[in-house]
Amino acid sequence: MRNFTTVLKIAPAFLLASAMIHAQTSDTATKEKKIEEVVLIGYGKQKKTDLTGSITAVSEKDFNKGAIVSADQLITGKAPGVRITNSGGSPDAAPNIRIRGGSSFSANNNPLIVIDGVPLDTNNPAGVANPLNLINPNDIESFSILKDASATAIYGNRGSNGVIIIKTKRGGGKLRVSLNTNVSVGTVTRYVDVMNADQFKSFINQNYPDYNYLLGVGGNSSNPTQAGTIYDTDWQKAIYRNSVSSDNNLSISGSLFNKVPTRLSLGYNRTEGVVKTSDYERFSAGLNITPTFFDNHLKIDFSLKGLFSKLNAIDDGGAIGGAVNMNPTLPVYLSQTSLSGGAYNRFGGYYQNTVLTGNQYLIQGQSNPLAILLQRESPQRITKFLGNAEINYKFHFLPDLRAIVNLGLEASRSNLKTVYGENAIATYRNPQNSVAPNDYVFSPGVDYAEHQNIVNQTMDAYLVYEKKYSGFLSHFLIQGGYSYQNFKNDGYKDNYRYDDATGLRVPNPGTALNPNNRYYNVLNLQSFIGRANIDFYDKYLFTLNFRADASSLFQKGERWGYFPGVGFAWKVNKDFFTGSSNVNDLKLRLGWGRTGNADIVGVAGFYPSSPYFSIGGSNSQYFPGVGTYSALAFNPGLTWETTDTWNGGIDFSFFKQDRLSGSIDVYTRKTTNLLAKVPLPSGQGLTNEFTENVGSLENKGVELNLTVVPVKNENVNWSVSGNFGYNDSKILDLGDVSYFPDNSSTLPIGTGVKIANNAVSYQPYSAWVLEQVYDSNGRPLDNVYVDKNNDGIINESDRYYKAIRPRWTYGFSTSLTYKNWDLNAAFRGQIGGLIYNTRKLAQGFKSYTVPQNSQSLNNILVSTADSPFTLSDNLYFSDYFLEDASFLRLDNVTVGYLFKNVFKSTNVRVYASVNNVYTWTNYSGQDPENFNGIDNNFYPRPRTYTIGFNFNF
């Protein structure tokens, strides 16, 4: 993972020498191109050559290959300006999707996802980290990514962060049966470099000899320099495994009764995580029927998708963090001794460090990380339903006029619980009035449960008049209508505790009174939409969009927001290159638009613009049985966050067969009335922060998308494509303050230490740190920092800002087919950005091995043996722990062979694939790709080896 600078020099040269894309045989090239020519836009579709906005289309042939679990993995690295960063390698890893950077602080920054005309609820179902796991990737035909506001304005308040429109596959034509199946094996590529047993024993003996008795098992504090029985345990390998996963999909498509296009699909995915017990299962089914009536004047597009998933959620911190911290001289399994001297399996055979105090054994130090995984189950069962019916009627008396009604329903049910097994270390406790040898009890059973129902209902109704002409006015479209959405989120939680009187687990008495345990939220959104497309001479294209939104989230006087957009495009090739065979397309685009945002993160249980009260728990009562009430912070003047965007672009395609094609975009966008959770002055009798419209934020950027086809003939088809995106964001104003801490930057050590601020004149989420001083050999000096203001004191005044988010992101891929062989490779990466190496801090100073008030030892990094650091308040903020997060990742390599006409008309494709092949980086930790820039208890991204078969009948 080194020599990254050299790689950065090679990668652009490779891209410009050839540049991307995907294998396709010559007899399907024309068909696939036609699919690309029509692009889905908001409430409609349009030819790609007629687009006036910045829209990136990714079709099935361009999707990422290999082991794909969720829909976002299909397009990671495929679109300029679109940064998709998963939170790690777990089967349900949550993707952070950013289109052209973030536009908000406390509002949602993820784009709007629309599947077959149904805008999804941005509040994930309980137990779902990744909502795109809840659709079968094998059912997806294409993505349209709307990036500039001239394209997204028609989605109004939900379009500020871009829009991703997903179209699923449809039936039609002759009967076709497709069976796709694959098996994958995943492995951990890199472990945290902590000490092994010999290294740790030597380190303790040299630095803390009076703690030798804590090495191994059986040591005695009366003879502190003598170690017990030493074991050699690699705790990371104890919790990790080689995972085995499979993905299976069957689809049947054709025309029912030779008239009705129909497609039926079934899918089963089982994904094992590389951390033991982190298993994921998904059963999916889909049905699409598109009948037509009255000589094709009436078309009904009916789509229905059902899904059931089950995930066993693990305790990442306890297991992954524990494996890195755990003393390597201790065993995984060991029968322990009771007070009476007999051996028994107190913790089910797992070793756990305990200390005898009086008549009680007290747990000391880190819990056994493998026991944390195997003695606890946390099944999360999700049932999901997504359906819509689009009724499209072309009037008999005026065929150019259509009436369209789209009815959509998104519904999910979540059932979650956490259950501890017999002898679980996590439930070990000493009973009241403990007397030897009855020195302990366990409380197995349900510890937590949650039940939730989410229902999202959508209704769109609009008229479209479209007419094509010859001459001056070549195309005219006008569209207008009404949209309504209703969101309901209803659920409750149960917490349990051990009852000394009965010896059973019972619900906590405060559960029913705690408002966080019972929630019901309804949100309504109604809108009026309009669009006009006017083309002159098929060369000068104008688009006007408008949307008016009203949200029940705000007070009546602030509910309505108005979001216009306008776009213009000029087909230059039709004015200056009409006779040229080398200029297929040359189009200039210019657009402006305004979008909004009201999707405030963390307020799903109440309305932050209205006065509400929270019921206190049973432990906060004035009178027995009477709970207290606390006022929740509210802001009656809360209103829309708005974003204005300017975009200029060029689309081009040159030479025969579009050998060189692509686009360049330049944009600037400014967000005002930012929704932010700001600190509340003390003495208010409320919470310590509340939501307010404050300040403004600016994003500027450049995007390049390029495709080159060096060879394209009957036997060989080679294409290369790539994309680059540059985004620079800056906070312009924060009202009455110059900065406020970002809550998502809290370090997992210390007491509420936040490493990043949102500060005026800097990138949002910038690290606020001290500049470390080094000696002449480049070695950091302990507790020595640059005194920026020369006052002789190191404090907050000496900190400075460093941008954590990368400004440059890129991806490139290549595809080669030779006769029946195909080869695909995909790369992606980022230039710049920083990552805070929490492990280098937490386990980077020697005294960490001997924590105070604990009869236990902690493991440390191998490099800590030479560390100069001692823990201090300023150490958390040293920029020494901020490392360059640049990387280039070879995401996938796939090789396949197509056997044609194996059984009459049956084609079989066999392929082998490797995901997460290699990463070039200078980062010293496990993985440089981390959205929040804080590396701690990271679930490693596995390297996955896949063998698969595609049968097409």
TrEMBL record:
Protein location: Cell outer membrane
Membrane topology note: Multi-pass membrane protein
Matches recorded under PROSITE patterns: TONB_DEPENDENT_REC_3 (PS52016)
TonB-dependent receptor-like beta-barrel domain location: 351-917
TonB-dependent receptor plug domain: residues covered: 48-163
GO CC, one annotated term: cell outer membrane
Pfam families linked: Plug, TonB_dep_Rec_b-barrel
InterPro entries assigned to the protein according to its UniProt record, in alphabetical order: Beta-barrel_TonB, Beta-barrel_TonB_sf, Plug_dom, Plug_dom_sf, TonB-dep_OMP_SusC/RagA, TonB-dep_OMP_SusC/RagA_CS, TonB-dep_rcpt-like
Superkingdom of the source species: Bacteria
Keywords, comma-separated and alphabetical: Cell outer membrane, Membrane, Signal, TonB box, Transmembrane, Transmembrane beta strand, Transport
Signal sequence, renumbered to the chain: 1-23
UniProt family annotation: Belongs to the TonB-dependent receptor family.
The name this protein goes by in its record: Iron complex outermembrane recepter protein
Phylogenetic classification of the source organism: Bacteria, Pseudomonadati, Bacteroidota, Flavobacteriia, Flavobacteriales
